[in-house]
Specification:
The structure is a single chain. With about 180 residues, this protein is of the alpha/beta class. About 30% of the residues lie in helices and about 30% in strands. It is built from 6 helices and 12 strands. It has helices at about 20-35, 85-90, 95-105, 115-125, 140-145, 170-184; strands spanning about 10-15, 15-20, 35-40, 45-50, 55-65, 65, 75-80, 110-115, 130, 145-150, 155, 165. The strands form 3 sheets. Strands 6-3-1-7-8-12-11 form a 7-stranded mixed β-sheet, sandwiched between helices. Strands 2-4-5 form a 3-stranded mixed β-sheet.
Length: about 180
């Protein structure tokens, strides 16, 4: 891939355990291949222990920084990988909530896949937005005021920042392409 995102800085926010393997590895590799500088942040430094399809242990991903040391102002976009355990941990994490709100308030793209839109529910950012997710959290998103649709990627520009959402690892090509498109 060419360096279409040269000079762009992206924050990839995860918990330290239970992140869906492909949903962290694919955006990380694709965005770096496109020339972006991607920083992996989590509550603790060390590694993100991934899971494949929420069951089997996957590879560990190095954490670049603790999430309480980063500022939205230093990045161009935020990427939230899924995984049931990861998303469940992040949605109750006050620092993660603060960061997501800060990216949105700054008008910067926020991309969430699979279960990661749970964090959008907790921050109030699903309300009034068209979005998608893994089907099992559809009710959570609609109860939070979101308009859920069953598409591989949904891009909503209606509230001052671009919200990019996808359903599952099967949609990663479309998810990654939408993130790149948002940052061109």
């Amino acid at each position: 891939m060419n360096a279409t995102l040269e000079g762009r800085k992206i924050l990839l926010l995860s918990s330290n355990f239970g992140t869906e393997t492909d949903e962290i590895r694919s955006p990380l590799a694709t965005l770096r291949d496109a020339g972006a500088r991607v920083t992996v942040a989590a509550p603790e430094t060390g590694v993100v222990a991934t899971l494949e399809r929420d069951r089997d242990p996957g590879p560990e991903i190095p954490v670049d920084v603790a999430h309480d040391t980063v500022k939205a102002a230093d990045f161009d976009a935020l990427v939230l990988p899924g995984g049931t355990l990861n998303a469940d941990a992040l949605r109750t994490d006050e620092t993660a909530q603060f960061l997501v709100r800060a990216f949105a308030a700054d008008g910067k793209p926020v991309a969430a896949i699979c279960h990661a839109p749970w964090l959008l529910v907790e921050t109030g950012l699903a309300d009034g937005r068209e979005l998608t997710s893994v089907p099992t959290i559809r009710t959570d998103l609609t109860n939070a005021g979101g308009r859920w649709t069953d598409e591989e990627v949904v891009v909503d520009d209606s509230a001052g920042f671009r919200l990019i959402t996808s359903r599952t690892p099967d949609d990663l090509d479309a998810f990654n392409a939408a993130i790149i498109d948002a940052l061109r």
